Amino acid sequence: MSPINKNAKQVLAPIASNKRVGTYHQIIVNIGDLAQKCKPGNFVAIKVGGENSALVLRRAFAISRVSTSSATGGTMELIVAPGGQGSTWLCDRIEGDLIDIVVPLGTAFGVPTEPVPVLLVGGGYGSAPLFGLAEILNARGSRVDMILGASTSSNIYAPMEGKRAVNTMRIYTEDGSAGQTGRVTDNLYEQIKDLKAAVVYSCGPMSMLSAITTITKALDVVHQCSVEESMACGIGICMTCVLPVQGEDGSVSMLRSCIDGPVMDGSSVSWNQVGKAL
Amino acid sequence: MSPINKNAKQVLAPIASNKRVGTYHQIIVNIGDLAQKCKPGNFVAIKVGGENSALVLRRAFAISRVSTSSATGGTMELIVAPGGQGSTWLCDRIEGDLIDIVVPLGTAFGVPTEPVPVLLVGGGYGSAPLFGLAEILNARGSRVDMILGASTSSNIYAPMEGKRAVNTMRIYTEDGSAGQTGRVTDNLYEQIKDLKAAVVYSCGPMSMLSAITTITKALDVVHQCSVEESMACGIGICMTCVLPVQGEDGSVSMLRSCIDGPVMDGSSVSWNQVGKAL
Amino acid sequence: MTTIDFSTTIGNAWFPAPTFTASGCASSGRELAQFFPLREMGGVVTKSVMSRVRPGRPTPRMAETPSGMLNSIGLQGPGIDAFLAQDIPYLVEQKARVIVSIAGETVEEYSTLARKLRSVSGISAVEVNISCPNVENRGLVFACDPDASRRVIDGVRRTLGGELPIIAKLSPDVTDLVSIARGVVDAGADGLALINTVLGMVINVNTMRPQLGGKTGGLSGPAIRPIAVRAVYQVHAALPKTPILGMGGIANGKDALEMILAGASGVSIGTASFGNPTAIMSIQSELKQMLIDRGFKSLKDAIGYAHRVEEVTNE
Amino acid sequence: MTTIDFSTTIGNAWFPAPTFTASGCASSGRELAQFFPLREMGGVVTKSVMSRVRPGRPTPRMAETPSGMLNSIGLQGPGIDAFLAQDIPYLVEQKARVIVSIAGETVEEYSTLARKLRSVSGISAVEVNISCPNVENRGLVFACDPDASRRVIDGVRRTLGGELPIIAKLSPDVTDLVSIARGVVDAGADGLALINTVLGMVINVNTMRPQLGGKTGGLSGPAIRPIAVRAVYQVHAALPKTPILGMGGIANGKDALEMILAGASGVSIGTASFGNPTAIMSIQSELKQMLIDRGFKSLKDAIGYAHRVEEVTNE
Ligand SMILES: Cc1cc2nc3c(=O)[nH]c(=O)nc-3n(C[C@H](O)[C@H](O)[C@H](O)COP(=O)(O)OP(=O)(O)OC[C@H]3O[C@@H](n4cnc5c(N)ncnc54)[C@H](O)[C@@H]3O)c2cc1C
Ligand SMILES: Cc1cc2nc3c(=O)[nH]c(=O)nc-3n(C[C@H](O)[C@H](O)[C@H](O)COP(=O)(O)OP(=O)(O)OC[C@H]3O[C@@H](n4cnc5c(N)ncnc54)[C@H](O)[C@@H]3O)c2cc1C
Ligand SMILES: Cc1cc2nc3c(=O)[nH]c(=O)nc-3n(C[C@H](O)[C@H](O)[C@H](O)COP(=O)(O)O)c2cc1C
Ligand SMILES: Cc1cc2nc3c(=O)[nH]c(=O)nc-3n(C[C@H](O)[C@H](O)[C@H](O)COP(=O)(O)O)c2cc1C
Ligand code: FES
Ligand code: FES
Q: Any idea where the Dihydroorotate dehydrogenase catalytic domain is (chains C, D) (predicted)?
């Protein structure tokens, strides 16, 4: 059997809860045993709009955390920003509603074999998958520090329970409504050095990932980032979600961010060629 | 102001109740003062499918009855057969849901100035508007008899309370599962004669209306029928819902069944030209 | 409240707003007047009228399709004389601005129709619907034949003289829309209406025959909007000075803005009015607000804005 | 359980079921194999492959539209040699029936590609995607040019000899689809694939520029189904003996049946697989059941059934 998405299944899953958190919705979905197959960084593709819908494509959402406790029977948590038609529809679902999902999809964050200090950087709802990751890194003995940024405080997603696995958390908002005024990248160079971080993990807007890569490259630190490109299928069959990625031999090719991503090695992404013709 | 649909309004109206009756749904909608403007035979055009829906056209439904009592604040009753996408969506609405309606539309059944015996003939959900009509005719002193037909018993819509205004009710089913085996037109000629009916009112499939017209013409009895053609707009702007109708001068022209109907003089409809090029 | 110059022009015709009915989607105007005053929109484009009374195609004349519909009306209508006697006076009385749409089966019929319009007052422009079968050429649709298209517009231009603006309404069912557009503009069209419906068909899986009486029908509604936007964008790129009335699936202010940015000077709304009788009014106010939100001082500044040349940025 | 002969043929190629992937909507096949065994459908139509490696168009490459989507992939691919080395062996190993889709920028490139296919085993047919810009003729799409279409198919036919069936894939963006179809059949095509995507555009109302990196894109999905059904119906009426692979917005068994009744011998499923990875499997079983319910003993009896002549009834 092919290794692509080898654990992915299409299932109808019931919503366990849907709670507003700031501008986001925290949506918990019962996915049973599939929860055991989900790794931090994986995403889920959800059918939106219901019957008779004019929306024909699934929407991708990062899996924030999974719980495999026998009490809940396996759940995954999503952090959804109601924006356009599909995400608004999803945020309108209530407990018990069934949603059609394909999960788990895509690559996962690589976890170091040794407990090394790591820094997690999230922008907006991009912090979501970092909390699941933090728990695992923390459990493996890594020191985990986190930096979150957003345009304004209500766009910062930083749940109480998520902070348990984190050593320090620094917050930046562009309007200064929470934490420091500015962007996550403002003092990133110094922070990586101070923390002696061996790996930077990131998730957020593409411009942020690109800026982080510049810094991690200068410091020669590993940067694993979760990218976000428009995806029509989420399973590797349409070629819409591509990013220019440099191979071992230096040549750049267009890789699918749904199966060769969303977690990619930031230093291999040819950021200045994103959105340009090769 | 133009006389076309002069009372029609587009409003968001709450569903008061939705109850299954046989294969149909009896749906009651709060329409406030608009109920006073609805006459038997009028119809309502309802937006279906909800937000993001791929269904772009309204669906027409005959108004079965209205209530203008101050207790309910004005309601209309619909009898809906869940069939395709739009009607199924409507039947899935629950109490309190708001629906986007345009009401009242189309022509109404003409009520005789004198109390004369009348016969009401309905096929399937076509009986719906006849009950509201029966109440008015009965209140005006007419003797009202009714004949209902359908393929099978569960497709007969004949509510208890509806029967109050009716003198006799005869039922025909094609499979014999209720009433007599056969069609409403089987003994219609004799029944019209026996009842000395001065007007036949009908609503149902086009083939039934056509067959009734043959009989009423032979007996020289007035036949007011409510037709059902595919309607894209329901308000007279698209010209999709036309029927060949003979004018005073004998010439046949294509009239819109949404504004020159749905109630039409059966003898003026050129039934054998329906669906043909003029 | 911020204001904006919301007016638009097509040839020498001025309209206070860029929102119009689409031909054949407002009947004579009376039916919509129940829902809003006709003078509040940019203008009424009337149903394409022919010389003589036309019964149109057999029913069923419509089929709903995903995010769209097919229609096969076959230009049912009362003929030009009855139309001018009954409908125009009503529209004028309502203070509506009127664009009369004409359709013919021969080049000559179009000219005859144009002749009848010359002396009629209260008409702002003539829309020449050339998406009709040419009986003189095996029923080939005029708008699919560059030469026949040109000849129709040329005949109408000569007949009308220079006064009334002519808007040629084109079909998207062609290999090279830009060359058809160029041809009719060369022949004297002041503006273009894009797009007419796309030829389609639905087969009823129960009867296992075509659903429409006329077998094929015209596809309209949001389903075709990307085709319409592309058509307007392509033609505006080639003929930036020619005003375009953009249409095809416009259902809200955002859709109207998309069409304006692509290069339309005004928008026509058809199918959306079937689903929502007051669609034109809400589209109009949403569009105005969206233009204001984006800092436009006038509608005209937004026309074709999506074509602007990329500023060179050095990051 | 009632059974039915569900098989279909295109030229001399036999398929146990009439359901195929649409080119470019199943990548190399491996990705879908996670969701169902590839051999269970009629066949895999591979992504159009060119001579050399192609990076494709810039992102964003897609935009969702009402009941549809635009794509602008630009035929990204590994080139024919890598494709034959990596993808074909996998598909053969999976016991999938394979239709290879080829695309070129010159008439010569198509022939070159065909030559490479001659000696490859495990291929059932070749789909020649001629909806590509012809670099030798101002980038005019081959399928929009009757003469260039014919020359491409003629070249492929000569190169392949008589063995592998050739399916010419046409674009609906033409004035006269039937004449293009006739031309390629005369030039040696055994079958036709209808339809490729319809050219469209979306403008982002925030950036106020075209949404796609490539500006225009191809419209697919249920929105275009009425156009596809019409295309298949028209071409089947003109060329009743030519097998057609029908596609465009097929999302369930009913849609597939509609296409078969219109005249398709098989159906390809593209966009529906994006929304539902197992779409092809459910379409296949729904279609089979609907045919049985309607009393068909074999799929072949249903092909083009909507064209049957009206029995004369005397009512
Ligand atoms: C790998 C991945 C992970 C994601 N994780 C999250 C998450 O955890 N929380 C969350 O709220 N959103 C997430 N998104 C974005 C999400 O998939 C939707 O795109 C977003 O919710 C907007 O969809 P919409 O239907 O509301 O908007 P619409 O405007 O209706 O969307 C139209 C189309 O554009 C695409 N699109 C719009 N915005 C984006 C975007 N930002 N990125 C990619 N495609 C877009 C949509 O997918 C859709 O196909 C993720 C996207 C990807 C690719
Ligand atoms: C004047 C009038 C009164 C009606 N009254 C009733 C009523 O009281 N109760 C009731 O259940 N239905 C009634 N109908 C039929 C109703 O409008 C819907 O057409 C029917 O419910 C099927 O719609 P759908 O969305 O479920 O089917 P779909 O298959 O999704 O409909 C597709 C399209 O075909 C049209 N269509 C399908 N069936 C019919 C039909 N039988 N007549 C006309 N158009 C059709 C639909 O309106 C729609 O545009 C009436 C129709 C008209 C014109
Ligand atoms: C029911 C109907 C009737 C139409 N009649 C005409 C017509 O008479 N003349 C014409 O030029 N276009 C006619 N059209 C095409 C519309 O004017 C318009 O070009 C097309 O529907 C696309 O716009 P829409 O998607 O907003 O409806 C008709 C469209 C519909 C749906
Ligand atoms: C993302 C995408 C990629 C496509 N790539 C190709 C291709 O490489 N070659 C080709 O002939 N058609 C290609 N097509 C067109 C499809 O094969 C098909 O003709 C069209 O999408 C209509 O079918 P659908 O509505 O089921 O998707 C592509 C379509 C899509 C959506
Ligand atoms: S989203 Fe389709 S290949 Fe990645
Ligand atoms: S339904 Fe549109 S005119 Fe009657």
A: 7-291
Instruction: Tell me the C-alpha distance between C223 and C202, whole Å.
Output: 14
Contact in structure between C71 and B232 (CB atoms under 8 Å):
yes
Beta pairing class for C98-102 and C140-141: unpaired
Tell if the CB–CB gap between B242 and C68 is shorter than 8 Å. no
Q: Pick from B52, B54, B89: which is nearest to A89 by CB?
A: B52
DSSP lists the bridge partners of residue D266 as D245
ipTM given for this complex = 0.97
**CATH fit for domain B118-273, picks 3.40.50.1010, 2.30.130.30, 3.40.50.80, 2.60.120.260:** 3.40.50.80
Predicted confidence (pLDDT) at residue D53 exceeds the cutoff of 90 = yes
- Residue D5 is given by DSSP the state B
Radius of gyration for chain B, computed over Cα atoms and rounded to the nearest angstrom? 18
**Helices marked H in D196-297:** 225-238, 253-262, 271-275, 279-293
Residue from C102, C197, C244 whose mutation best tests the ligand 3 pocket (most atoms within 8 A of CB): C197
Domains in chain D, ordered, with CATH? 8-56+74-200+220-307 (3.20.20.70)
The one-letter code for the residue type at C99 is I
Give the C-alpha separation, B203 to D130, whole Å.
54
Residue B243 has pLDDT above 70, yes or no: yes
Q: Does residue D222 belong to the interface with chain B, where contact is any CB pair within 8 Å?
A: yes
For a ligand 3 pocket test, name from C23, C45, C173, C273 the mutation site with the most ligand atoms within 8 angstroms of its C-beta.
C23
Distances (CA, A) of D28 to A5, B66, C285, D241: 14, 61, 49, 31
Give the whole-angstrom CA distance, residue C47 versus residue C70: 17
Nearest CB to C59: which of B47, B102, B274? B274
Distance from CA of A184 to the nearest CA of D (A): 25
Ligand 2 near B43 CB (within 6 A): yes
Alpha-carbon distance of C162 to C157, in angstroms, equals 7
Q: What CA–CA distance (Å, rounded) separates A262 from B255?
A: 59
Whole-structure pTM value: 0.97
Please state which of the ranges A67-71, B17-21, D16-20, D182-186 shows the lowest mean pLDDT: A67-71
Q: Which residue has the tokens 């409507």?
A: B90
Residues of chain B with Cβ-Cβ distance to D66 below 8 Å are 54
The ligand 1 site (C-beta within 6 Å) comprises: A 43, 57, 59-62, 79-81, 83-88, 125, 128, 228-231, 262; D 64
CATH architecture label of A9-105: Beta Barrel (2.40)
Distance CA B105, CA B108 (A): 9
CA distance D103 to D75: 8
CB < 8 Å to A210, chain C: none
Tens of pLDDT, residues A8-62 = 999 999 999 999 998 999 999 999 999 999 999 999 999 999 989 999 999 999 9
Per-residue pLDDT averaged across A236-244, rounded?
A: 96
Check whether D157 has a pLDDT greater than 90: yes
Question: In Å, how far is D120's CA from the nearest CA of chain A?
Answer: 23
Find the mean pLDDT for residues D77-102. Answer: 96
Asked if D285 reaches chain A (Cβ–Cβ under 8 Å), the answer is: no
Residue boundaries of the structural domains of chain B: 9-105, 118-273
Give CA–CA dist D174/D185, Å, rounded.
17
